[in-house]
Amino acid sequence: xxxxxxxxxxxxxxxxxxxxxxxxxxxxxxxxxxxxxxxxxxxxxxxxxxxxxxxxxxxxxxxxxxxxxxxxxxxxxxxxxxxxxxxxxxxxxxxxxxxxxxxxxxxxxxxxxxxxxxxxxxxxxxxxxxxxxxxxxxxxxxxxxxxxxxxxxxxxxxxxxxxxxxxxx
Length: 169
Hints:
Layout: E1 3-14, E2 20-30, H1 45-52, H2 55-58, E3 62-70, E4 73-74, H3 80-84, E5 87-90, H4 103-113, H5 118-131, H6 147-161, E6 165-168
Parallel strand pairs: 5-6
Antiparallel strand pairs: 1-2, 1-3, 3-4
Helix pairs in contact: 4-5, 4-6, 5-6
């Protein structure tokens, strides 16, 4: 299988800290593989996810060394908009990422910003809500969902965007 993600000798320290959060990390993730990043707080899991979608080093600045490739594109040389089509990201504090008035609009936000057709967006929303069994909450306010149901729209936002790689930091 082809590499979906390739990480070569990646090190990163946030600006003004001097502390390397990622230290000479190398990994190869094949297409279609499910990988779980586990570790204690401040181990660099979210930083690694941000390095895969370009937020590190473009938005979160610091001392960046090494190379990250996603779907054949070098992250440090690619724009965040371009990478958002390849890598979706849901952060630990998923509630901070919910902002629309209902579940359907929440899930549609990314594909709408990618200027996909209404038909494609509708098909994706239908498919993913059906897959996770949340068709009945499609028009509910995201903030009124229970904890488990509340996280689910966040986790299906990435695949609905069409991103082949999803990170949940």
